[in-house]
Amino acid sequence: MQEVISSIESQRDDNEVFPQLVAKMKSLLGEDLQKPRVTGRQTQRSNYDAEEAEEFYRVSLYLPYIDHLLSDLKRRFESSPSVARGELLTLSSWDKHISISKFSNLK
């Protein structure tokens, strides 16, 4: 589990990961990002000091989400590494018995 946490931490600090996500999102949506209007006094959401839309969404959405994910993973698994191993073993043994084709008829 420590490898997963360190991988997410390195992606958080890598300045090339978020632009790749944005580029993929732009290609899927076919539109550019639009930065929300910033006012002098904002009461419903934070005003982030960002010149470009990509930087705004990186600071307002991406980084808080990654930080929350890392915090939850550390809280849950670093205190008891055996829990993480047990859950991974359970998932891998479950995966051996279940195939994707069994779920194809579900709607």
Give a concise summary.
The protein contains four helices and no strands. With 107 residues, it is mostly helical.
Characterize the structure shown.
The protein has 4 helices and no strands. The protein has 107 residues and is mainly alpha-helical. The protein has a domain at 51-97. Mean pLDDT is 76; it is low at 97-107.
How much helical structure, as a percent, in the residues? 55-70%
Structural class: mainly alpha
Q: Number of helical runs?
A: 4
Q: Care to count the β-strands?
A: 0
* Rounded average pLDDT: 76
* Beta-strand content estimate: under 5%
**Assembly classification:** single chain
Which stretches are poorly predicted, pLDDT < 50 over at least 5 residues? 97-107
Shape: globular
Task: Give Rg in angstroms.
Answer: 19 Å
- Give the distance, in angstroms, between the N- and C-terminal Cα atoms: 33 Å
